[in-house]
């Protein structure tokens, strides 16, 4: 038996139960991973509330790091004793241990701790695909990135600086603005005291930006479109304020033949070769010191409900860990 978080219904933080479950043994192509640390991400809220549907009863959590304790038949990517990490489906990382498909696991370099890995896999791989695959940045661009003081945002601040990109970031307080600047964000806009569309136009001398990375959703969607230069791309990769409402495609034409995409990490890592390439790039950025993973909150896994409350109340900054 191991402790894990389970939910029988969707709803608020109190639907999550911390209870004993039977783990079993790994089958073909699977490995049993004993978790040392688990990551907390806003996508977990979407699954908990039912915005992203899943079959119930179910677990929660999409990233963790730990040690392989057992493997099933036909496993070649990992061996017993390997230090590993993962991000993505199947959901259920909020647990002391679990059985995972080995295709989802990557070996950790000795230089990267379990805490760092669990805090960066989903968020760091997200920045990797956003900056190098969804809208490949060459250096020299000026971009807009919402929620610049969050876990993804602080990695994006550093990554943008490392590749020579000028980042305009939005935040919700002066304290978060200072944090984003410390991590390399060039221009920071407090959207509670400033009009972010107006400020972006001022910063870019009326030109707008070639790309907006938006994980906020409903509250920022229209404004984000208004920040784009003609032929610019809107990258909507989250819904922290709620899902984007339906809109007419002509809105893209009237603003200058804009592009829009709704990417998902799981699609970008679906092929093993892509996952290994992206993880190697992320590990190299961290090992070089260009990106430091800022872990600002730690909760015992048993206090998962409070962790979710704090996340939804926007009390957290940087990365958050759950400790089994």
Explained architecture:
Helices cover 31% and strands 27% of the residues. It has 324 residues and is α/β, with parallel strands linked by helices. The chain has 2 domains: 2-121 and 272-323, Medium-chain alcohol dehydrogenases, catalytic domain (Quinone Oxidoreductase, Chain A, domain 1, Alpha-Beta Complex); 139-262, NAD(P)-binding Rossmann-like Domain (Rossmann fold), CATH 3.40.50.720. Strands 3, 5, 6, 7, 8, 15 and 16 form a 7-stranded mixed β-sheet that branches. Strands 11-10-9-12-13-14 form a 6-stranded parallel β-sheet, sandwiched between helices. Strands 2-1-4 form a 3-stranded antiparallel β-sheet, with no helix packed on it. Helix 2 crosses helix 3 and helix 5 runs parallel beside helix 6 (221-227). The longest helix is centred in the middle third of the chain and has 21 residues, at 114-134. The mean pLDDT is 95.
Summed up, what is this model?
Residues 11-322 form the Enoyl reductase (ER) domain. The protein is of the alpha/beta class and 324 residues long.
CATH architecture of the largest domain: Alpha-Beta Complex
* Cα-based radius of gyration, to the nearest Å: 20 Å
* Helix share bin: 25-40%
CATH topology of the largest domain: Quinone Oxidoreductase, Chain A, domain 1
Count of separate DSSP helical elements: 10
Average of the residue pLDDT scores: 95
Major sheet attributes: 7 strands, mixed
General shape: globular
Structural domain tally: 2
Keywords: NADP, Oxidoreductase
Domain Enoyl reductase (ER): 11-322
Protein name: Quinone oxidoreductase
GO molecular function: mRNA 3'-UTR AU-rich region binding; NADPH binding; quinone reductase (NADPH) activity; zinc ion binding
């Amino acid at each position: 038996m191991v402790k894990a978080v389970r939910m029988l219904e969707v709803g608020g933080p109190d639907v999550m139960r911390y209870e004993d479950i039977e783990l079993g043994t790994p089958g073909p192509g699977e490995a049993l991973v004993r978790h040392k640390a688990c990551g907390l991400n806003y996508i977990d809220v979407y699954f908990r509330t039912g915005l992203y549907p899943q079959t119930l009863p179910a677990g929660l959590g999409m990233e963790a790091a730990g040690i392989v304790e057992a493997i099933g038949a036909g496993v070649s990517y990992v061996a017993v004793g390997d230090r590993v990490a993962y991000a993505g489906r199947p959901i259920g990382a909020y647990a002391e241990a679990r059985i995972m498909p080995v295709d989802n696991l990557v070996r950790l370099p000795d230089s990267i701790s379990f805490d760092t890995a669990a805090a960066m896999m989903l968020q760091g791989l997200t920045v990797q695909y956003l900056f190098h695959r969804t809208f490949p940045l060459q250096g020299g661009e000026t971009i807009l990135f919402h929620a610049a003081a969050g876990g993804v945002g602080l990695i994006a601040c550093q990554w943008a600086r490392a590749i020579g990109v000028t980042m305009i970031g939005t935040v919700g307080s002066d304290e978060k603005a200072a944090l984003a600047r410390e991590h390399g964000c060039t221009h920071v806009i407090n959207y509670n005291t400033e009009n972010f569309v107006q400020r972006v136009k001022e910063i870019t001398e009326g030109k707008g930006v070639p790309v907006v990375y938006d994980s906020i959703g409903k509250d920022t969607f229209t404004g984000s479109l208004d920040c784009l230069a003609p032929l610019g791309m809107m990258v909507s990769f989250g819904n922290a304020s709620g899902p984007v409402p339906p809109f007419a495609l002509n809105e893209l034409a009237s603003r200058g033949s804009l592009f829009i995409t709704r990417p998902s990490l799981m699609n970008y890592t679906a092929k093993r070769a892509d996952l290994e390439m992206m993880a190697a790039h992320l590990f190299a950025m961290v090992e070089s010191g260009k990106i430091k993973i800022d872990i600002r909150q730690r909760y015992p896994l048993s206090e998962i409900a409070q962790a979710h409350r704090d996340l939804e109340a926007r009390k957290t900054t940087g990365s958050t860990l759950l400790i089994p």
